[in-house]
Automatic annotation (TrEMBL):
It comes from the Eukaryota. One of its GO terms (molecular function) is L-amino acid transmembrane transporter activity. Its main location: membrane. It is a multi-pass membrane protein. This is Amino acid transporter transmembrane domain-containing protein. Residues 47-440 form the Amino acid transporter transmembrane domain. Belongs to the amino acid/polyamine transporter 2 family. It is found in: Membrane. Keywords: Membrane, Transmembrane, Transmembrane helix. Residues 1-22 are annotated as: Disordered. The chain crosses the membrane at residues 47-69, 75-96, 123-146, 158-176, 183-205, 233-255, 267-288, 308-327, 348-372, 378-404, 416-439. It holds the Pfam family Aa_trans. It comes from Penicillium salamii.
Length: 465
């Protein structure tokens, strides 16, 4: 391995006690170029901060729908599906860390796509990455508007709340480095966990969920094994995939780690906490609420608890949204300035391009969120069509790209054969979920239009009820 490549991912020197780890001398990075005191330190995120950033890209909007997914599947199939998705995505995330160490120049999933599939792979995965995270950012803005409506009793037009969410997320998302955002990730993670735990405890101590009938003795109607239609089942599975769909962002997070060799340490902490939390929330809330669990789940314990939980959740929803804007804007920013001295230097061009990328991302996400009827169903469609193939198929291809030659060299060990079969399974499973999930989302959109025609563009209606 060349000396330049080895140096490109070596730890970035820092001042003793420095908050972000400012560099003492020029340090070459294979993605960001020369990192110096004259620009932002893009290699400053420590392993614990990395784990928190990972958790925050995972725990957000998706966790609020897990109890509803369990309602369709039943507790036992729901737990099995969740553990299977957790296992596959953890392996996918692990491959990202391994691939990044072997190919230091990789910044995003499109770089990996180009190595595997050529220019077509770069175009597809790059476009899918941007489109996916822009839609998720728009979904985050709507989530914030729901929270603001809930705590204020719809004091202002919903369209105004969406605009406020977009402005706040854009301003904070324009902070230059993930190292400087990691403290916000801590706040966001603690706030969203607190809000969901409040609701979980509340539904356990109350005699019935908020939506249950009040004129009869309440008996939880949870199902050990559900009997859903194919559309409901595949939608529930894709909902769980969505809860683990932070995977594409792990490329960007790994690129800004101070010690990339600690990636696995951060990953295992993240996936362990996320999976345990998802299991507890999904099982407990569905057990106590049954078919009357709300979506999002924060409304399951009545109006008072709903206000309190959304009050705690607002910082977490804001941090999720600003991270989506930051990661998307950073991706476009790096692609525009990569190879230029402006990428890692505080020049006018640097700031003009950086702010242009984050503001443009926020504006597009805001317009999509506000202008498109049945937006939540559209996010599900984009998630199935673009989000799923970024969490499964590329990672199987990445392992095969790095290891296929071993079989050609006559080193077909049992482990190699098993891993080839595993990668083929992951790729096929991803393709099935993409096709079936897209079909389920299209059916859901058709039903939504038939029932209500979707919501109006820039609607003032209260979206928290």
């Amino acid at each position: 391995m060349s000396e330049k490549v080895e140096k490109s991912l070596s730890p970035v020197p820092s001042h003793e006690g420095s908050k972000e780890g400012q560099v003492l001398e020029a340090q070459h990075d294979a993605v960001f170029g020369e990192i110096t005191d004259e620009g932002p330190n893009y290699r400053s995120v420590r392993w614990l901060g990395t784990a928190v950033l990972m958790m925050k890209t995972q725990i957000g909007l998706g966790v609020l729908s897990i109890p509803v997914a369990f309602n369709h599947l039943g507790i036992v199939p729901g737990v099995i599906v969740l553990m299977a998705i957790a296992g596959i995505t953890t392996w996918s995330d692990y491959i990202i860390g391994v691939f990044k160490l072997r190919h230091r120049e990789v910044y995003g999933i499109d770089d990996a796509g180009e190595l595997i599939l050529g220019r077509a792979g770069r175009i597809f995965f790059g476009g899918a990455f941007v489109l996916w995270w822009v839609f998720v950012a728009g979904s985050g803005m709507l989530g914030l508007s729901i929270g603001l409506n809930a705590v204020s009793d719809h004091a202002v037009c919903t369209a105004v709340y969406v605009a406020i969410a977009a402005i706040l997320a854009c301003i904070l998302g324009s902070i230059q480095t993930l190292g400087r955002l990691s403290w916000l990730a801590w706040i966001g993670l603690i706030s969203i966990l607190t809000s969901i735990l409040i609701v979980t405890i509340a539904v356990g101590v109350q005699d019935r969920p908020s939506a249950a009938p009040k004129d009869a003795v309440w008996v939880p109607d949870y199902k050990i094994v559900g009997n859903p239609s194919f559309t409901d089942a595949i939608t529930a599975v894709c909902t769980i995939v969505f809860a683990y769909a932070g995977t594409p962002a792990f490329f960007s997070i790994a690129a800004e780690m101070r010690e990339p060799r600690h990636f696995n340490r951060s990953l295992y902490l993240c996936q362990s906490v996320v999976t345990i939390f998802y299991l507890v929330i999904g099982i407990v809330m569905y057990y106590y609420c049954g078919s009357y669990v709300s979506s999002p789940a924060l409304g399951s314990a009545g109006p008072v608890v709903k206000k309190v939980s959304y009050g705690f959740a607002l910082p977490g929803l804001l941090v999720s949204t600003l991270l989506f804007i930051h990661i998307t804007g950073k991706y476009v920013f790096v692609r525009i300035l990569q190879g230029s001295r402006h990428l890692a230097a505080n020049t006018f061009t640097h700031w003009a391009v950086w702010l242009g990328c984050t503001v443009s991302t926020a504006i597009v996400a805001y317009v999509i969120a506000s202008a498109i009827p049945v937006f939540s169903d559209l996010v599900s469609l984009v998630g199935a069509l673009l989000g799923t193939p970024m969490c499964f198929q590329p990672m199987g291809g990445m392992w095969l790209y790095d290891n296929w030659h071993k079989g050609q060299d006559g080193r077909r060990t049992s482990k190699w054969i098993f891993m080839v079969c595993w990668c083929v399974f992951v790729i096929l499973a991803g393709c099935f979920l993409m096709i079936a999930g897209t079909y389920g989302s299209v059916v859901t959109i058709i039903k939504s239009y038939a029932a209500a025609g979707g919501s109006a563009a820039w609607s003032c209606a209260d979206n928290s009820v």
